[in-house]
Amino acid sequence: LYRKKLFLSSLLVFYHICYNVSMLHEQIKQNIKEAMMDKDAVRLETMRGISAAFTNDLVSKGKKPQEMLTDEEATAVITKLAKQRKDSIEQFKAGGREDLVLEESAQLAILQTFLPSMMEKSEVEAIARAKQTELGITDPTKKGMLMSALMKDLKGKADGMVVKEVVDALF
């Protein structure tokens, strides 16, 4: 029995590698089932939202809804969802809707478990200073060039708002 499970799990990994199937996409589908069994409404709603966003992304790329996204594509979709939640939280705070802030914050926390950890501001500052000296940018009017170079290097590793704050502080 153990050998059979080991064989099946290795076969599954081989399938995912050969056909460039997303382990993250599979994990989300499995988490939907687990959330249903645990009767965790917030997690279930969030997982279904992620799954729907995956399907929308597939359809917008001209693929079939049954296909799977790669891990990079799945991470990009989840990042977009997390950004939407952050924007919603800001709007709800401005509108005085604390009940909706709590709901969105709970969903954001779940989304962030699927995202790679972001760099700290101090790490971004060090990279920004190095890139600034590398490009020889001292003029504040060229900060757009520095910003675009940094975002190319730090895509998916650092939050764009943090990078913008660091670049603004350099000039």
How far is the N terminus from the C terminus?
64 Å
Largest sheet at a glance?
none
Rough outline: globular
| Average predicted local confidence, pLDDT | 85
Tell me the series of helices and strands, N- to C-terminal.
HHHHHHHH
What value does the Rg take, in angstroms?
20 Å
Query: Helicity range of the residues?
Result: over 70%
Structural class of the helices, strands and pairings? mainly alpha
- Which band does the percent of strand residues land in? under 5%
Low-confidence stretches: 16-20
Number of helices: 8
Characterize the structure shown.
There is one protein chain. The chain is an all-alpha fold and 171 residues long. It has 8 helices and no strands. About 3% of the residues have low confidence.
Give a short synopsis of this structure.
The chain is an all-alpha fold and about 170 residues long.
List the main descriptive attributes of the protein structure presented here.
globular, 171 residues, mainly alpha
SSE arrangement:
Elements: H1 2-18, H2 23-38, H3 41-60, H4 71-94, H5 98-112, H6 121-135, H7 143-154, H8 160-170
